[in-house]
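Example 125, ligand heme C.
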Amino acid sequence: MRRLSALLAAAPLLLTLPALADGDAAAGQKVFTTKCKVCHTVDASGKNGVGPGLNGVFGRKAGSKEGFAYSPAMKSAGVTWDTDTIKAYVTDPKNMVAGNKMAFVGIKNPAELENLIAYLKDATK
Ligand code: HEC
């Protein structure tokens, strides 16, 4: 019973946990700088490099950024980028979109991924 009341007391706190569980954008920026920046921009310029500019990527259809020469695989991936699809793609690009041309091995560390997503959400708005 004591346990239960302790749990109940903690309930409001638990409800706010998803916000706390969100990644650390500052740490995510470091991940982006070391692992993505050679190929991608995030700012409003939307400039394409080796990879497509990622500004506005959340909610965008895969392979749809104007002026970028996507692989046929990416153009026909039928994916809309959101937290889950970007995570899946960045974890294992070759597996998520077979035949795509992003030469990146993937990030397997969940915390690193969370942080990266937190940064991307903010930086690509
Ligand atoms: C070596 C260059 C390179 C690196 C490093 C790289 N990317 Fe990419 N990325 C690409 C290319 C090229 C594509 C387009 C793939 C295609 O057309 O098949 C792409 C596509 C993407 C897309 C799909 C965008 C769209 O418009 O559909 C996302 C999202 C993405 N990359 C995120 C990342 C993230 C996050 C990182 C770092 C963890 C990263 N990439 C690292 C080259 C790279």
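Summary: Helices lie at 2-15, 17-21, 25-35, 72-75, 83-91, 93-96, 110-123.
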